[in-house]
Design brief:
Layout (H helix, E strand, L loop, with lengths): L16 H6 L25 H10 L8 H7 L5 H13 L5 H8 L4 H12 L13 H4 L4 H7 L1 E7 L2 E6 L5 H11 L2 E6 L2 H6 L1
Parallel strand pairs: 2-3
Antiparallel strand pairs: 1-2
């Protein structure tokens, strides 16, 4: 979902919000963030049947906030979260996930997994999924590129779409209107969708 940053990147300015968010990153239980994996195996899909099973197995969406999920998974400390929220308050319009990844305290993959938990949808690893070329052509290339999405399968009369922002209802409505059928979003990284 988010741009990848080099492991261990630090800002040298002592007044930087990224620097202050990073200060206690090594204090997380379980060691540095790069040592704590995301356990994404259950959400990797290779076929439409895998995708159907993943959709059926996903838990309900939660009203927990992204930061709380990251703290609950022990990928982030409460202190780091509070610093990031203060940075977000000073920079209106910035997404918390972007702030945390840029600060180097969580990875893009960890944010993706947390968002999937929040939305109650599977994370799709597109490098492992065979995308039907005919299905992909149902959405004009310009529209797919503009909205950064990719049709993956038709399941139970619904078009399953990979998107990096499943909460963007306007985006989903545009696709539903264009394709004349209901749409189910699944979460994928923006980079993988662009390469799909």
């Amino acid at each position: 979902i988010l741009p990848r940053t080099a492991q261990g990147t630090r800002r040298e300015s002592t007044g930087s919000p990224q620097r202050s968010i990073q200060q206690d990153r090594e204090s997380l239980p379980g060691g540095p963030r790069e040592d704590r994996d995301c356990h994404m195996a259950e959400t990797i899909v290779r076929t439409a049947d895998d995708l159907r099973r993943a959709l059926e197995a996903c838990p309900e969406a939660t009203d927990r906030r992204l930061g709380e999920i990251l703290v609950g998974e022990r990928w982030l400390t409460r202190q780091q979260l509070q610093r990031a929220l203060r940075s977000q308050a000073r920079n209106r319009g910035r997404h918390l996930g972007h702030i945390l990844v840029e600060a180097g305290v969580v990875t893009a993959q960890q944010v993706t997994v947390a968002l999937a938990q929040k939305f109650g949808i599977p994370v799709v690893k597109l490098e492992h999924l065979d995308v039907d070329a005919q299905l992909a052509r149902r959405i004009p290339v310009e529209l797919a590129v503009q909205h950064n999405l990719l049709p993956l399968a038709e399941i139970a009369g619904r078009l399953v779409i990979a998107t990096d922002n499943p909460l963007d209802r306007a985006r989903m409505e545009i696709i539903r209107f264009h394709c004349k059928e209901a749409v189910t979003p699944v979460l994928a990284s923006a980079e993988e969708i662009a390469l799909g």
